[in-house]
Automatic annotation (TrEMBL):
Enzyme class: oxidoreductase
Catalytic activity: 6-phospho-D-gluconate + NADP(+) = D-ribulose 5-phosphate + CO2 + NADPH
Record carries keyword NADP: yes
Pathway per the UniProt entry: Carbohydrate degradation; pentose phosphate pathway; D-ribulose 5-phosphate from D-glucose 6-phosphate (oxidative stage): step 3/3
Keyword entries, A-Z: Gluconate utilization, NADP, Oxidoreductase, Pentose shunt
Annotated organism of origin: Prauserella marina
The enzyme's E.C. designation: 1.1.1.44
Pfam (any one): 6PGD
Gene3D superfamilies linked: 6-Phosphogluconate Dehydrogenase, domain 3, N-(1-d-carboxylethyl)-l-norvaline Dehydrogenase, domain 2, NAD(P)-binding Rossmann-like Domain
Residue ranges crossing the lipid bilayer per the database entry: none
Superkingdom in the source lineage: Bacteria
Name under which the protein is recorded: 6-phosphogluconate dehydrogenase, decarboxylating
Length: 477
């Protein structure tokens, strides 16, 4: 029997995707650069379904039914190009190559265009949910041609997570759309993680709670509107005690957050598109800052306010306020992320359905949360919504949360607890709702030093003021 799909690259993600496919009754061809991995998979998990191990690219391709569907799960960058070049010459018109890694969307666009010329479909598919997700049901974000989704879609929908019976997989749009959306997913993931980490820092530094107590707080939050995978695992991590020292685990881990690059890409592209994704940017920079060990050591002696933690009922109230600040900041971060997807969709003609993106992020992926169903509802009601912040329920929730939000940020500032995520989110909210921004003054400065001209609120056209002359006459530019 021929395989309906093949997976090449059998490290843990590829292996788990292959097993997931087989467990759903699909015959899966297997291939890996070194044969041992292929043999191991068949030996350990062969009983889970129908696998066709192949020990050469040629045998792998020969094992596949038409249109052949080859899923590549290798490292982003040069290794992906190498594998594409290994398989593309063996494939025929109409066959499909899927890159299921975390590729940069610009690479995906380049590869898609090149393979389209050769009559092949190239699908850049975002896959989220880590190892467990890949095995038990990830969220899948495939880009590429609509035609490729006809054969690939049913398989991917089958193995994806389900929420209320709806698969967490949908065709995102042409060429790089899928990888772009996955990249923003990761950017939002950074932002969510940073906001949760700041909440922890505040509950400890300002309310004086111990990690075990904070774990309880997160557990409670997880029963409400913040219900999400990241809050759930945060409670687990905070509740964990290090066996060797008996200390809270979080106190024995080096405080340097690492990153593999998707957050950084999101920020870089946010700048290119001119979309202020400040929540993601601060989260990414916060990780960078944490890693500057020597810089931090040299600055550790800088003075700050003395901290007297809140106590009793005040501390309890503060914890409630942090929940509200976290919620409001999260709405801002998602609003920004969706704006970035909207902008890229317009720029590249992807025609991305934002409601569908929210829908497939409800399950399987790292940022999965009940909150995403509210976002789905908002975009389904108004697909061209300018910002989540103005959609009915979110607007109301954020407006109601804002007193607490402001109070938390002020407390943080007063006590010297860094909250880049909360603060930038609040600043963004205040910038968006401002009647006037000081950008007018910046235009004046630019015109002063560089004759860069400005526009007026009361007349059409561009103007320049003769700053060097006493009269400071204004003339049309
Ligand atoms: C996912 C994750 C995954 C990756 C993390 C880690 O959606 O399953 O996002 O793609 O493991 O993004 O990224 P960093 O190492 O950059 O934190």
């Amino acid at each position: 029997k021929k395989a309906s799909i093949g997976v090449t690259g059998l490290a843990v993600m590829g292996r788990n995707l292959a097993r997931n496919l087989a467990r759903h009754g699909h015959t899966v061809a297997l291939h890996n650069r070194s044969d041992q991995r292929t043999r191991d998979l068949v030996e350990e998990f062969g009983s889970e379904g129908d696998f066709v191990p192949a020990y050469s690219a040629k045998d792998f391709v020969a094992a596949l039914d038409r249109p052949r569907q080859v899923v590549i799960m290798v490292k982003a960058g040069a290794p992906t190009d190498a594998v594409i070049e290994e398989f593309a010459p063996l494939l025929e018109k109409g066959d499909v190559i899927v890159d299921a890694g975390n590729a940069h969307f610009a690479d995906t666009r380049r590869r898609e265009a090149a393979l389209r010329e050769r009559g092949l479909h190239f699908v850049g598919a975002g896959v989220s949910g880590g190892e467990e997700g890949a095995l038990h049901g990830p969220s899948i974000m495939p880009g590429g041609s609509a035609e490729s989704y006809e054969s690939l879609g049913p398989l991917f929908e089958d193995i994806s997570a389900k929420v209320d019976g709806t698969p967490c997989c949908a065709h995102i749009g042409p060429d790089g759309a899928g990888h772009f959306v996955k990249m923003v997913h990761n950017g939002i993931e950074y932002s969510d993680m940073q906001l949760i980490a700041e909440s922890f820092d505040l509950l400890r530094g300002a309310a004086g709670f111990e990690p075990a107590r904070i774990a309880e707080v997160f557990r409670t939050w997880n029963t409400g509107r913040l219900d999400s995978y990241l809050i759930e695992i945060t409670a687990e991590v905070l509740g964990h005690v290090d066996a060797a020292t008996g200390k809270p685990f979080v106190d024995v881990v080096a405080d340097r957050a690492e990153q593999k690059g998707t957050g950084r890409w999101t920020v870089q592209i946010g700048l290119d598109l001119g979309i202020p994704i400040t929540g993601i940017a601060e989260a990414t920079f916060a990780r960078s800052l944490s890693g500057h060990t020597e810089l931090r050591a040299s600055a550790r002696g800088l003075s700050g306010p003395s901290r007297t933690p809140l106590a009793g009922a005040e501390a309890e109230r503060f914890a409630d306020d942090v929940e509200q600040a976290l919620y409001a900041s999260k709405v801002v971060a998602y609003a920004q992320g969706f704006n970035q997807i909207q902008a890229a969709s317009a720029e590249y003609d992807w025609n991305i359905d934002l409601g569908a993106v929210a829908s497939i992020w409800r399950g399987g992926c790292i940022i999965r949360a009940t909150f995403l169903d509210d976002i789905r509802v908002a975009f389904e009601a108004e697909p061209t919504l300018p910002t989540l912040l103005t959609s009915g329920d979110f607007r109301k929730a954020v407006e109601e949360a804002q007193d607490a939000w402001r109070s938390v940020v002020s407390t943080a500032v007063r006590l010297g607890i860094p909250t880049p995520g909360f603060s930038t989110a609040l600043a963004y909210y205040d910038e968006l709702r401002a009647q006037r921004l000081p950008a007018a003054l910046i235009q004046g400065q630019r015109d002063y030093f560089g004759a860069h001209t400005y526009q007026r609120v009361d007349r059409e056209g561009s103007f320049h003021t003769e700053w060097a002359t006493e009269a400071r006459a204004e003339r049309p530019a």
